Amino acid sequence: MTNRLLQRKQMVVDVIHPGLANVSKIEMREKLAKVFKSESDLVFPFGFRTQFGGGRSTGFVLVYDSMESAKKFEPKYRLARQGLVEIKRIARKQRKERKNRNKKLHGTEKAKGKKAKKSND
């Protein structure tokens, strides 16, 4: 199905793979890119489930018209899966320390993220 508002083609895909446990998403992207006359970077397969007994998988595929539309509409985690976007993560300990420091602050000080100095007058 063509979705002009989101500048993409979207479809449910059945992959038949006898003798294989499953098909890699990279292989799938390359084959679907040939079928839809597109680049493999613009093909986003996801949500594949293997049928009981194996041999067939069903999932969803989005084929975008351009890289700009893909980056605009596709969720960041899917872009990161394909290596198009780098998600920087803050260490768990740093997040917890920041949270506990912010507990001691009140009002607009939390937005600034620094402790107000108390005057000893």
Portion in helices: 25-40%
Q: Which strand-content bin applies to the residues?
A: 15-25%
Main beta-sheet annotation:
4 strands, antiparallel
Distance between the termini: 72 Å
Low-confidence stretches: none
Number of beta-strand segments: 4
The assigned structural class equals alpha+beta
Which word captures the global form?
elongated
The number of helical elements comes to 5
Order of helices and strands: EEHEEHHHH
> Within the largest sheet, what's the order of strands?
1-2-4-3
The average pLDDT is: 89
Taking all Cα atoms into account, the compactness measure Rg is: 23 Å
Task: Write the topology of this structure.
Elements lengths: L1 E2 L4 E9 L8 H11 L7 E8 L5 E9 L2 H7 L2 H6 L10 H12 L5 H4 L9
Antiparallel strand pairs: 1-2, 2-4, 3-4
Description:
By secondary structure, the protein is an alpha+beta fold. It contains 5 helices and 4 strands, in the order ββαββαααα. It has helices spanning 25-35, 67-73, 76-81, 92-103, 109-112, and strands at residues 2-3, 8-16, 43-50, 56-64. The chain has a 4-stranded antiparallel sheet with strand order 1-2-4-3. The radius of gyration is 23 Å and the shape is elongated. The mean pLDDT is 89.
